[in-house]
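ok new one. same drill as before - structure tokens go in, u give me an amino acid for every spot. 449 of them this time. try not to just spam alanines like last time pls lmao
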């Protein structure tokens, strides 16, 4: 598929990579540039005598380069696609050279073997062993939850307004205790709650909301046997209990559709771990889905997604009420296509959709929202997103440089904006012209800190 400059830059792992790629756009640096229906390739002259061999499988896009960079895609892969976006005439059409053809063949071979393995009947698990492991984990979680219940009571008895930075060490210690109790989801929620202490006006009320959701989990754990299967699945997810991928691919709710990539973002969890969110919406089903992937040590992601593109896929959804998280079960080896944004409801219906999601599962950390007519604005030090003609506005979580770019694309006129809502702030990821036609006019670039 043909990508715009903005779409290519949105694939950058960080701002430094995007900036470095722009510095490689001189034609003299690329003695070889070629393309076929399946791939784009080029040789980029670096500091050594041998140029770096850079190639992109357009079905992803998926990048590969002979340079030693651990970032994915590297600056050479980004520069190659930027050149393709800006000057297709510079690329010679023809059969891929051996170093590209061999790589494409190996990718096809891996895909075929993966499909063959998926078709093989899975070995029957040992129910007794699985039940024993589950019982042992629940025992540890119950002990941790009892300790958390006492700790939550201590915080509320002391009074939230009295909290300060000196308490953050104790909150971090309690988060670590939850990880030891095999409930990492609780640890993460405690860390997120601690970040609210002293943060802005009215922070005690926001903190109380977070602690209330923790209390819901504390109350649910001892009552888990009386909960419905879907609610138990939501509880396990909130605790951070991992889902068996093979079981999910075999038993998860199956939805086949053409999926529009609403938006995506990268979150740097630590120096070596990057978390990627890819949000999709089904053309026929209207279902919204979150693909959550991780990259360790800059190795990159198996599948590339382009915001504003559309491609056929079969997803398997995680169990639970109003489940959003999914995994790709089948992805045909065909290039994605650029598509207009699917129709969206008015603001009242979007709010209603969000309310239904929260009512079904109050522990969902992020909710996807599409606003048909939204205008970015700045008041004091805070960025806002005004919704339609009403005086309603959402506080935005967006770096200043990105916010100014979004405002420039708006020019004071409405945009169709997609992003994540965490209950307090809206994080824009993609914006289209108000009528929703064509490619996005703005996408979040680089990784969020």
């Amino acid at each position: 598929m043909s990508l715009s400059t903005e779409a290519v830059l949105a694939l950058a792992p960080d701002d430094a990579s995007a900036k470095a790629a722009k510095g490689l756009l001189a034609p003299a640096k690329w003695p070889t540039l070629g393309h076929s229906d399946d791939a784009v390739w080029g040789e980029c002259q670096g500091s050594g005598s041998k140029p770096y061999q850079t190639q992109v499988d357009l079905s992803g896009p998926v990048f590969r380069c002979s340079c030693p960079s651990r970032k994915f895609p590297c600056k050479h892969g980004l520069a190659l696609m930027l050149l393709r976006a800006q000057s297709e005439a510079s690329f010679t059409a023809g059969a891929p050279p051996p170093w590209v053809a061999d790589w494409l063949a190996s990718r096809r071979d891996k895909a075929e073997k993966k499909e063959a393995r998926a078709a093989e009947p899975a070995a029957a698990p040992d129910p007794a062993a699985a039940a024993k492991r589950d019982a042992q984990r629940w025992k540890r979680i119950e002990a941790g939850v009892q300790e958390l219940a006492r700790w939550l009571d201590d915080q509320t008895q002391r009074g939230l307004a009295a909290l300060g930075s000196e308490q953050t060490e104790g909150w971090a210690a309690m988060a670590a205790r939850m990880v030891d109790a095999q409930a990492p989801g609780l640890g993460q929620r405690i860390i997120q709650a601690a970040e609210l202490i002293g943060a802005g006006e009215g922070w005690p009320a926001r903190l109380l909301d977070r602690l209330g959701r923790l209390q819901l989990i504390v109350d649910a754990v001892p009552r888990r046997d009386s909960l419905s299967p879907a609610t138990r699945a939501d509880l396990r997810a909130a605790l951070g209990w991992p889902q068996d991928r093979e079981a999910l691919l075999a038993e998860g709710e199956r939805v086949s559709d053409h999926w529009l990539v609403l938006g995506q973002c990268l979150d740097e969890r630590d120096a070596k771990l990057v978390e990627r969110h890819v949000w999709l919406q089904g053309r026929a089903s209207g279902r919204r889905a979150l693909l959550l992937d991780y990259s360790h040590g800059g190795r990159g992601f198996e599948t590339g997604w382009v915001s504003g593109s559309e491609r056929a896929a079969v997803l398997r959804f995680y169990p639970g009420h109003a489940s959003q998280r999914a995994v790709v079960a089948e992805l045909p080896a065909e290039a994605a296509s650029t598509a207009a944004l699917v129709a969206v409801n008015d603001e009242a219906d979007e709010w209603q959709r969000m309310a239904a999601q929260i009512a079904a599962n109050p522990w969902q950390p992020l909710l996807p929202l599409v606003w048909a007519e939204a205008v970015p604005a700045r008041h004091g030090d805070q960025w806002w997103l005004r919704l339609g003609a009403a005086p309603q506005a959402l506080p935005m979580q967006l770096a200043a440089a990105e916010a100014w770019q979004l405002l420039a694309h708006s020019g004071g006129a409405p945009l169709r904006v997609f992003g994540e809502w965490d209950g307090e702030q809206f994080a824009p990821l993609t914006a289209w012209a108000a009528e929703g036609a064509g490619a996005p006019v703005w996408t979040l670039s680089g990784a969020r800190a």
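The radius of gyration is 24 Å. and btw The chain is about 35% helix and 25% strand.
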